[in-house]
Amino acid sequence: MKYPNGIQKVYKVLPSYGNRGMNLEEDLNVTNEYYRDSDIAIIYKKPTPITIHKVDYHSRKDAVITDARFTIPSTTDYNGIYQGKYIDFEAKETSYKTSFPLSNIHEHQIAHLRRIQKHGGIGFLIVRFTAYGETYFLSGDAFFHFLDSEKRKSIPRSYFQKYGKLIPIGLRPRLDYLKLIEVKNETKNEKA
């Protein structure tokens, strides 16, 4: 753009990545609210268990927690029920461009997801590569296969591209991850 005094201003056009202000947790919370409101599934974010040690009471209506500690390690981020099946998953974001560090998931969370699947539930990961605006669904089976067969300290993005499923960002629902879950409904004859 040319200004009257001869100074030129150059505007850089940034690429648009729709919903750049939203983080993964917000996207999932909005999605899960849509699922509940539409009677598709009942899924909630699990609260983080804390013990409150000190509260400052400025007035009856204005109490401020000044000291709190985690009571026990939390398991995963979300759980609920979908088409008669219990689902449980961990959601993570990474700014790394080439891989997802396994240090972002704790051993007790991995053990919890393994137990979910062992008992017939559906466990999985949802991982967002923020640099690309890509969000992947990685089934528990694909996740455990990687852990059991690889010695790496991170899961390459290429593994998510090959064995995961890209979750497109939409409007309603924002991240329709449930359409990527295969629920096998058993009949009484199949159980026998």
Task: Please specify the SSE layout and strand pairing.
Elements: H1 24-37, E1 42-45, E2 50-59, E3 62-70, E4 78-82, E5 85-94, E6 99-101, H2 107-118, E7 122-129, E8 134-139, H3 140-149, E9 154-156, H4 157-163, E10 165-166, H5 188-191
Parallel strand pairs: 5-7
Antiparallel strand pairs: 1-4, 2-3, 4-5, 6-9, 7-8, 8-10
CATH class: Alpha Beta
Total helices: the number is 5
What ranges have pLDDT less than 50 throughout 5 or more consecutive residues?
Answer: 7-21, 186-192
In total, the number of domains comes to: 1
Strand order of the largest sheet: 1-4-5-7-8-10
Biggest pleated sheet: 6 strands, mixed
Helical content class: 10-25%
Q: What is the straight-line distance between the termini?
A: 75 Å
Structure description:
The strands form 3 sheets. Strands 1-4-5-7-8-10 form a 6-stranded mixed β-sheet, with helices on both faces. Helices cover 24% and strands 31% of the residues. The longest helix is centred in the N-terminal third of the chain and has 14 residues. It is of the alpha+beta class and 192 residues long. The protein is globular, with a radius of gyration of 21 Å. It has a single domain, classed as Trna Endonuclease, Chain: A, domain 1 (3-Layer(aba) Sandwich). The C terminus is likely disordered.
